Amino acid sequence: MNAQHFAQAAYGRLETPLRSARQIEYDLLARVTQRLTRAAQDKDRNFTGFITALHENTRLWRAFALDVAQAENALPDGLRARIVYLFRFTEQHGRKVMQGHGSVDILIEINTAIMRGLRGEGEAA
Question: Is 122 exposed, middle or buried (0-12, 13-18, 19+ CB in 10 A)?
Answer without folding.
Answer: exposed
